[in-house]
Amino acid sequence: MPMKIDSVIARQRVDDLDAAIPFYERLTGRTADRFAFAAVQLASVGPFLLFSGPDEAVQRVAGVSATLTVADLAEAVDEAVAAGATVVMPAQPTPNGHRTVLRHPHGGVYEYVGP
């Protein structure tokens, strides 16, 4: 059975996270879930992942086009690689499961997250 992507999370760098959050909360009707990753401040608001921080810190986050959630991360990686994707960052644990970063054959870089 082919891999299924459960959701796509759009990533958006913002200059001022505190100023940006109310717009996205109003747009989505969802409350922001804030967290930090290294020196980057992030907020998950519905289908958006907002982030801000110093240029050198956000490069790790900004280089990824979107986050794709999948039910089976290992299967998704195997299928994507078999179809021509390359692994940029191998799977690693996170507080919410596991993540890996893949470069699709046409150049897009995506984070895959799943159990």
TrEMBL record:
Alphabetized InterPro entries for the sequence: Glyas_Bleomycin-R_OHBP_Dase, Glyoxalase_6, VOC_core
Pfam families found in the cross-reference section: Glyoxalase_6
VOC domain location: 4-115
Protein name: VOC family protein
